[in-house]
Write a structure and sequence with these properties.
This protein has 215 residues and is an alpha+beta fold. It is 16% helix and 32% strand.
Length: 215
């Protein structure tokens, strides 16, 4: 009785192995028949299998202008995008080198609208700080003059000498370093007539002098 059971068990396991083997073989054939796009065997040669031989090197020198350590980098008004403004022999264009704007909607940047360019301008006050100043197409800083009103008081007896004030000059960094008059406009003069002891008029003096000055 036991011998018959053993023979039956061996026959059942042999049948199961043959069935599983056939299934695995059919599965392998089906998988091998599935087409795979854009894959091919590497060409034979010294570099076979390295991913180097048989492929053309993409030369981007004619597509993207070259930059160096002297290339000026500009930013947008909110400092979200940093870019270089370069000529690629077909015209000027922006090459983006940085983005600090956070999340991109749909993973794209909108370049359909023009942006203002700002350059880094160092402040000559010994502190080593800098500001961002708008620049023109040639990379020149676009400064504007800021004027303040200043009043010069004069002595009530001798008066105030205007000439040194009017002839004073200031070096304007935003105007290519040239010197211009500090006083832009005379706003107001306060004067006083000096009368002698005999009651005769001697002269008129300036007791107060208000002007608009370049800062």
């Amino acid at each position: 009785m036991s011998k018959a059971v053993k023979k039956k068990s061996r026959r059942m396991w042999r049948t199961m192995r043959k069935t599983l083997g056939a299934l695995f073989l059919v599965s392998a054939l089906v998988i091998a028949a599935i087409p795979v796009d854009n894959l091919q065997a590497a060409p034979t040669g010294s570099g076979a299998g390295t991913g180097q031989d048989g492929y053309e090197k993409c030369d981007t020198s004619s597509m993207i202008p070259q930059m160096n350590a002297q290339t000026k980098i500009y930013t947008t008004a909110g400092q979200e995008i940093q870019f270089a403004y370069l000529n690629d022999n077909s015209g000027y264009g922006a090459v983006i080198v940085g983005y600090n704007g956070g999340y991109l909607q749909d993973g794209t940047l909108d370049f359909t609208r023009p942006v203002d360019a700002y350059g880094q301008y160092r402040i000559n006050d010994g502190g080593g700080g800098y500001n961002f100043v708008a620049v023109g197409l040639n990379g020149n800083f676009l400064f504007y003059e800021e004027w303040i009103e200043k009043t010069y008081p004069g002595d009530t007896t001798a008066g105030l000498e205007e000439k040194p004030i009017l002839e004073d000059t200031v070096k304007m960094e935003g105007m290519n370093g040239k010197e211009v008059n500090r006083v832009v406009e005379v706003v107001k003069r306060e004067t006083k007539d000096i009368i002698g002891a005999d009651g005769n008029f001697i002269k008129t003096i300036v007791t107060s002098f208000t002007v608009k000055e370049r800062t």
